[in-house]
């Protein structure tokens, strides 16, 4: 692909500069850098419904806050005619620098598809590595705007080395500063692993693709017919594979939403999450949720309600940024604010598969919990879980080790952990969902809560096997266990609270827990069951 | 960006109080603000009343019962188990699953509920069993008082044909042309021809305008016959029909009557209910701008004559059609409490439910005819969960994710049976509430209604507030020049939403810009974040674009303190407001006048707006070859199968939603490719029903 662009590139912008003064040459290069691959390619980029690398940076950052670095860097390839002046572009195929989003520092790189299809040269990689290193030293997030055809084939191993340099930095920065990838065009081959290593991968619908090998290779190897969109489009990755965390309609929507998203995050693992002025007073807001909740969670009815409807009532201005809204929908995770403080919300979704935990939802939840833990974001867990999903598909797929990830993540987390058992908390899933036993700081139960090893029917069949009057036994079991008391009398929940007071309680707990300090034993790193 | 903001702290407080102690709110509003007659606690009525209804009317009845110290029993279906009326009542009994014929119309279950709870009387509300003589009989057989007229009156007035005969005999003006019990479509055509077109066809047993169809020719008569008889059978279990002369351009004015068991009867003035869509009332007022005292008295006296002719007791309504020459014709008598009774209560000061209960117990009326005043003016808007842009209102369902009634305003009464978090389901009427405002004059009441509609917050379902606001501010409505054809005449192409004048549009755009800036500034000032840039950035001047409809309006904004100066579309607007970004209401001072705004527009920076032109337009689905359900409901009939060829306008299937049958037709001639629905199936809005080739 890159070769193609080289050969097609016929609009010669300037050749010899030797007759110009240094000052003039600086000006000239700056100007050249600003137009990237030239107007024609910019027009082509626009025609595809995509913005240029610089337009994207400008939209993402506060006006006039962008400070560019390495505008004069050029690629160093001298093969295949690449050494010719017309094949050199100041800045090469990526725009890098720092800027501010709502006044808060961020480092950004934006790949420029108009220059060699955004392909990654050694110089390109070096520019990215430089800002990542700076981001690490000062402690600021890195946002990557990916739009690249892949490796610069002319450069061979230098390009591959460049990828590896970036990967290493992604890994080193992981858990130190937030890293976000926004895929705004193709991203294929080895290149996909950089977004995969970052904390969040967002995509733009219809114009972005992520895959290891494209449809042609797939066809020749497995003889499958598949389009780019089906193989690695936004829909595939947000619903089927779980590779991407969110998809947006177009470039502008994506960038503006990314700004909103950024507001939730701390700058680094040494910084607290920002606290926004809250206009939704918690002390006054006794939510009406109890009513609506009771409508669904009527005593002992298996009705399926939407947890989101209930969660929203507790949040500032019902403002919720859901992560992976269309993948593993039986668990809901996302960011919100309570009394202005950023919190991570984890909730079982009874509307989908009764809210049980399965492989995908465990992994989705675990990764989210670990992000929150790494970046000082308190975790609020709403529990309504009937257990882990049974079946051969789950067992063969390794639900044991995948479920263990969620357990591991909750247990390991040292950020403030507040848990509300709204209805069912059955079996091992009760333990997993940020229970008191896993160092939950505040664990509440609503009056509708039932903490038990299993539901009444199954339990009675085991305890009273062969007994004539199963119905009576079931009633006895329900009376004993289908309420919050067994957990409350043992101190496994701190209090049984009225749902209407939930927001008020959480807000006050968050304030207290803001100074929480908890340290795990020294280790090189834990061995999470990957 | 979505509109956020907040009412001042006071209304937030009200908001909270409202939900936490619903009961005290109701009592306070009702006993103090609306009724002039004082309840006499020494007058013993009943110990316990069962309310055989749901929603706002059940709540309305319970409120008066509480005032009178009467215990209340609510009945409810499965899905209503935590509805407001259930929570308000002292006891509640589940009478069956969601469909009305298995719950609220299930007499056996309701009789059981009466026995179990020992209720001494039953208030039926409106609809459901309120005009069911069978129910009244069964109550009588068990010695339970029916709070309403006796079976004789229900029977006499419930039958449209018999009622006219009685009316005629009682010297009440009746509609020219006449009627007959109809067996076949051809009979219907014959009757229609005898009367002369246009004619109106409806179920004899049906109340109000539901199921009413107008036919202008033989074909429409046949179609009307088919639909009406189906609806009659499904809704009332009584398939008799009524066909009568249809009066073109009429006003619908009704007289409230109140009678006791001792032969006394009063008329409590009129209600003007001409603003209707599909023969269902939308906006009502009392009194009417059209009636002079002479006509009012004549109508009132005829209404009382009729009531006396059937030994009527309790509250009832005599409906008249009034032509442009103030000739009035008896339409029908509703032997129950009407939906729109609050406006009569507002202008007369009577609590009609209290009076009904007193009368049922056998007390004489407290008032004489000359005691019945017209105090000021009252207007009622029926707030529905429906999409006003489709035939002035097609039902919409959903959950009220946010709901705030404008009770922070004075002289506002809201009768509702839902609250934030409630579901509007396909099983019942989609009415959200009855919003009533009153004032010393009509203009005062109208101005208050405008305010109240602006302050009403409903999120989660599509609602008809835009249409209501448009009606009550329309010059024709304000001048009182209305008829039952008001909506189709004023909006011949259907309601398209409010068309903003240049000034109003500027104000809206400016408010949106100011709100956007307030939100941006908040994001730029996080607490406890020492790493925000200390190098000052200029943030007093912005260039923005607001998308409104299809247009994008560029504007420049400067800000100092809470004052935003906006230059937009060649004009200047000054917006003053301290934004609360969590409130759904936006109280602002715009160019010196106070406004309450709710809106949803998209605000972009100038740069984003410029770049927006490069964004591809997402191609909408081709809809000419597919038929989607325009509303949630149940499929009643599918008239075609795959392979059939349909003509343009041919019926494809019939969807029933909220007791309305809607025929869906083919947009063009085509062959049917596939059918995705079966009779009896429940479909959601936008569900694919049929694909054409």
UniProtKB/TrEMBL annotation, chain A:
Pathway: Metabolic intermediate metabolism; propanoyl-CoA degradation; succinyl-CoA from propanoyl-CoA: step 1/3. Gene3D superfamilies: 2-enoyl-CoA Hydratase, Chain A, domain 1. One of its GO terms (molecular function) is propionyl-CoA carboxylase activity. It catalyses: butanoyl-CoA + hydrogencarbonate + ATP = (2S)-ethylmalonyl-CoA + ADP + phosphate + H(+); propanoyl-CoA + hydrogencarbonate + ATP = (S)-methylmalonyl-CoA + ADP + phosphate + H(+). GO terms for cellular component: mitochondrion. It is an enzyme of class 6 (ligase). It holds the Pfam family Carboxyl_trans. It comes from the Eukaryota. This is Propionyl-CoA carboxylase beta chain, mitochondrial. It comes from Amphiprion ocellaris (Clown anemonefish). The lineage of its organism: Eukaryota, Metazoa, Chordata, Craniata, Vertebrata.
From TrEMBL, chain B:
InterPro entries: ATP-grasp, ATP_grasp_subdomain_1, BC-like_N, Biotin_BS, Biotin_carboxylase_complex, Biotin_carboxylation_dom, Biotin_COase_C, Biotin_lipoyl. It catalyses: butanoyl-CoA + hydrogencarbonate + ATP = (2S)-ethylmalonyl-CoA + ADP + phosphate + H(+); propanoyl-CoA + hydrogencarbonate + ATP = (S)-methylmalonyl-CoA + ADP + phosphate + H(+). GO terms for cellular component: mitochondrial matrix. GO terms for biological process: lipid catabolic process. Residues 45-492 form the Biotin carboxylation domain. Pathway: Metabolic intermediate metabolism; propanoyl-CoA degradation; succinyl-CoA from propanoyl-CoA: step 1/3. This is Propionyl-CoA carboxylase alpha chain, mitochondrial.
């Amino acid at each position: 692909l890159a070769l193609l662009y080289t050969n097609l590139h016929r609009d010669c912008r300037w050749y010899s500069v030797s007759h110009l003064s240094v000052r003039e040459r600086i000006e000239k290069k700056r100007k050249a850098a600003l137009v990237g691959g030239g107007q024609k390619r910019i027009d082509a980029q626009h025609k595809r419904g995509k913005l240029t690398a610089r337009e994207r940076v400008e939209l993402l950052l506060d006006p006039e806050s962008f400070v560019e670095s390495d505008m004069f860097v050029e690629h160093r390839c001298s093969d295949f005619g690449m050494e010719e002046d017309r094949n050199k572009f100041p800045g090469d195929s990526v725009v890098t620098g720092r800027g501010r989003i709502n006044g808060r520092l961020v480092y950004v790189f934006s790949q420029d598809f108009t220059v060699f299809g955004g392909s990654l040269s050694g110089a390109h990689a070096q520019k990215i590595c430089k800002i990542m290193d700076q981001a690490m030293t000062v402690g600021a997030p890195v946002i990557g705007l990916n739009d690249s055809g892949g490796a610069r084939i002319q450069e061979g191993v230098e390009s591959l080395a460049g990828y590896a340099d970036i990967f290493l930095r992604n890994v080193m920065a992981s858990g130190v500063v937030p890293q976000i990838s926004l895929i705004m065009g193709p991203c294929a081959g080895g290149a996909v692993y950089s977004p995969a290593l970052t904390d969040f991968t967002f995509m733009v619908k219809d114009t972005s693709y992520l895959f290891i090998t494209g449809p042609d290779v797939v066809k020749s190897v497995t003889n499958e017919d598949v389009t780019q969109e089906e193989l690695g489009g936004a829909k595939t990755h947000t619903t089927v594979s779980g590779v991407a965390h969110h998809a947006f309609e177009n470039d502008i929507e994506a960038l503006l939403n990314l700004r909103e998203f950024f507001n939730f995050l701390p700058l680094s693992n040494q910084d607290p999450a920002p606290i926004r002025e809250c206009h939704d007073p918690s002390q006054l807001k006794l939510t009406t949720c109890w009513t609506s909740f009771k409508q669904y969670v009527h005593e002992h009815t298996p009705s399926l309600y939407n947890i989101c409807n209930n969660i929203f009532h507790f949040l500032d201005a019902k403002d919720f940024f859901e992560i992976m809204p269309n993948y593993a929908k039986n668990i809901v995770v996302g960011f919100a604010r309570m009394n202005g403080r950023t919190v991570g919300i984890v909730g079982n979704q009874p509307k989908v598969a009764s809210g049980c935990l399965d492989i995908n939802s465990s992994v989705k939840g675990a990764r989210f919990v670990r992000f929150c833990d790494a970046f000082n974001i308190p975790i609020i867990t709403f529990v309504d879980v009937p257990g882990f999903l049974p079946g051969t598909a789950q067992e063969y797929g390794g639900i044991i080790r995948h479920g263990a990830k969620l357990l591991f993540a909750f247990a390991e987390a040292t950020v403030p952990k507040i848990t509300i058992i709204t209805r069912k908390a059955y079996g091992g899933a009760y333990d997993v969902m940020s229970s008191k036993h896993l160092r939950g700081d505040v664990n509440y139960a609503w009056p509708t809560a039932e903490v038990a090893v299993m539901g009444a029917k199954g339990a009675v069949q085991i305890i009273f096997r062969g007994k004539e009057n199963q119905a009576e036994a079931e009633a006895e079991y329900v009376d004993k266990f289908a309420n919050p008391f067994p957990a409350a009398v043992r101190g496994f929940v701190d209090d049984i609270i009225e749902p209407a007071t939930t927001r008020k309680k959480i807000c006050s707990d968050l304030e207290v827990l803001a100074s929480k300090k908890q340290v795990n034993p020294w280790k090189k790193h834990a061995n999470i069951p990957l | 960006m979505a509109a956020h903001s907040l009412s001042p702290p006071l209304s937030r407080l009200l908001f909270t109080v409202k939900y936490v102690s619903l009961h005290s709110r109701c009592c306070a509003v009702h006993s103090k603000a609306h009724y002039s007659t004082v309840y006499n606690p020494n007058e013993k009525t009943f110990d316990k009343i069962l309310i055989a209804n749901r929603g706002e009317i059940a709540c309305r009845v319970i409120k008066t019962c509480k005032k009178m110290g009467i215990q209340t029993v609510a009945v409810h279906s499965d899905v209503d188990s935590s509805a407001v009326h259930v929570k308000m009542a002292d006891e509640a009994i589940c009478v069956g699953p969601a469909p009305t014929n298995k719950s609220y119309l299930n007499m056996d279950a309701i009789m059981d509920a009466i026995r179990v709870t020992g209720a001494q009387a039953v208030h039926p509300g409106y609809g459901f069993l309120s005009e069911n003589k069978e129910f009244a009989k069964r109550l009588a057989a068990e010695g339970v008082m029916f709070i309403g007229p006796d079976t004789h009156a229900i029977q006499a007035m419930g039958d449209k044909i018999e009622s006219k005969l009685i009316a005629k005999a009682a010297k009440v003006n009746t509609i020219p042309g006449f009627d007959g019990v109809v067996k076949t479509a051809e009979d219907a055509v014959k009757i229609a021809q005898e009367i002369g077109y246009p004619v109106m066809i409806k179920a004899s047993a049906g109340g109000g305008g539901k199921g009413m169809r107008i036919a202008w020719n033989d074909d429409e008569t046949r179609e009307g016959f088919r639909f009406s008889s189906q609806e009659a059978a499904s809704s009332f279990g009584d398939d008799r029909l009524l066909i009568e002369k249809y009066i073109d351009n009429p006003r619908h004015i009704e007289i409230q009557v109140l009678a006791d068991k001792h032969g006394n009867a009063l008329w409590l003035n009129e209600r003007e209910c001409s603003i209707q869509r599909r023969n269902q009332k939308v906006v009502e007022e009392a009194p009417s701008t059209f009636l002079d005292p002479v006509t009012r008295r004549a109508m009132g006296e005829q209404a009382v004559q009729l009531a006396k002719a059937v030994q009527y007791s309790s509250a009832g309504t005599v409906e008249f059609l009034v032509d442009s020459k103030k000739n009035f014709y008896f339409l029908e008598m509703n032997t129950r409490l009407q939906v729109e009774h609050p406006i009569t209560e507002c202008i007369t000061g009577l609590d009609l439910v209290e009076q009904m209960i007193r009368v049922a117990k056998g007390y004489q009326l407290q008032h004489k005819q000359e005691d019945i005043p017209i105090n000021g003016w009252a207007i009622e808007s029926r707030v529905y969960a429906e999409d006003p842009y489709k035939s002035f209102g097609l039902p919409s369902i959903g959950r009220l994710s946010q709901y705030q009634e404008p009770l922070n305003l004075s002289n506002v009464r809201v009768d509702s049976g839902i609250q934030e978090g409630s579901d509007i389901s396909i099983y019942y009427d989609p009415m959200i509430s009855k919003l009533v405002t009153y004032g010393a004059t009509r203009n005062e009441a109208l101005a208050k209604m405008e305010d109240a509609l602006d302050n009403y917050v409903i999120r989660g379902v599509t609602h008809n507030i835009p249409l209501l606001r448009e009606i009550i501010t329309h010059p024709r409505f304000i001048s009182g020049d209305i008829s039952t054809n008001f909506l189709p005449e004023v909006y011949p192409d259907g309601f398209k939403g409010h068309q903003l004048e240049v000034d109003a549009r500027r104000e809206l755009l400016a408010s949106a810009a100011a709100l956007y800036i307030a939100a941006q500034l908040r994001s730029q000032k996080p607490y406890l974040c020492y790493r925000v840039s200390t190098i000052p950035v200029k943030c007093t001047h912005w260039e923005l674009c607001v998308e409104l409809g299809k247009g994008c309006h560029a504007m420049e904004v400067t800000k100092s303190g809470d004052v935003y100066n906006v230059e937009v579309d060649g004009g200047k607007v000054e917006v003053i407001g301290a934004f609360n970004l969590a409130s759904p209401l936006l109280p602002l001072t715009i160019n010196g006048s106070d406004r309450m705004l709710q809106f949803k527009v998209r605000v972009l920076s100038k740069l984003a707006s410029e770049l927006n032109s490069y964004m591809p337009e997402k191609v909408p689905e081709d809809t000419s070859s597919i038929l989607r359900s325009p509303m949630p409901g149940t499929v009643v009939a599918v008239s075609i199968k795959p392979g059939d060829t349909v003509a343009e306008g041919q019926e494809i299937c019939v969807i029933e939603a909220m007791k309305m049958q809607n025929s869906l037709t083919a947009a063009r001639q085509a062959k049917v490719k596939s059918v995705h629905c079966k009779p009896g199936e429940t479909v959601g809005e936008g569900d694919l029903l049929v694909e054409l080739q």
